[in-house]
Amino acid sequence: MLSKNINYSVYLILDPVLTENLGMVQTAQLAVQAGATVVQFRAPQWKKRQRYECALSLKQMLKNYQVPLIIDDDVDVALACDADGVHVGQKDLPVEVVRKLLGPEKIVGLSINNAEQMALVDPKMVDYVGVGPIFSTTTKPDAAAPIGFDGLKKLMQICPVPAVAIGGIKAHHIESAVKAGVQGVAVISAICGQDNPEQKTQELVRLWKQNTI
Amino acid sequence: MLSKNINYSVYLILDPVLTENLGMVQTAQLAVQAGATVVQFRAPQWKKRQRYECALSLKQMLKNYQVPLIIDDDVDVALACDADGVHVGQKDLPVEVVRKLLGPEKIVGLSINNAEQMALVDPKMVDYVGVGPIFSTTTKPDAAAPIGFDGLKKLMQICPVPAVAIGGIKAHHIESAVKAGVQGVAVISAICGQDNPEQKTQELVRLWKQNTI
Q: Rounded to whole angstroms, how far apart are CA atoms A151 and A134?
């Protein structure tokens, strides 16, 4: 469906708690219609049946848009619903294993927190990295120490693949993110659980474009 | 490596907490040397990297024995370490999906707690069922209500595939399990965490043989 020419600019990560009112699929659809460019499904607190069923529904909905669906951690769920890729952290399956299971066409993303991890990123295995957390967040309680935009800027100097900044990113941080050299911002609570996710997404898209022309 | 002619009689499920002293691999090896016929790896509390690495080590060790390695829940881990099969519960991936991902040669097991679930078991999708819990246990806090040997006996009358009884099974229950019609007993704490897992396994094997001749 998609070439590897991915637009990572407004990368939505769905959160099952924050989207409880609207639901995951509805939140994703509103965001995508407003210009979100990637959707990641992440629900570690759910049992796998529920994760699989939600991922299937997201895939079905996203068929109508040129927006890739990335599954957090579960390569089996990604294979089962023919998702566009998988995002793994440092404590999930190694990227070599993920690449082997998914094949060369799918997107593999990896979370990066420090220079040691970044130095190991192999562009043959990893399509993009999520670099952070920029700030501390409540949506991922087990996250590593925040690196700030200064830390991000340093890591971007040795980053061999496209990168998204992640961790507490709001609309007013986009200018700093662009200046640090990333290709996108990953957001959770900036869209999920907001009264008007479309408007919030439009604002992120507008600011991204404004800062990258 | 294995035909589908599996000996399910003494089916060991490894528990990461109970095996903390000896370790998963050492516990499994002692049990297998003493006659355990299946090893299931289950560690839902671990991150997937650790699960993957442990499953790889188990697979490596079990190569020397004609004993299949079954992975709980994680089809991706099973694929990555070329395990012999996957065991899923009712809230994990549907068995049709697991079968499709693993192919026809691998073993697919399914947990069954009641007649409604048993009636849906399709022998093309499911190689064996784990029926229970017979008793309530501490190793699986989210398990369904215990069914006892009477419940097991009733379910076995409509069971279309080989079955193992699971949930609090100890050596002195083997006679009842055999009489209920199962092809094996799945044990956790009867082996894991015991001072002498070899001896405990030998006892289970001896009692199984004694009751099935």
A: 8
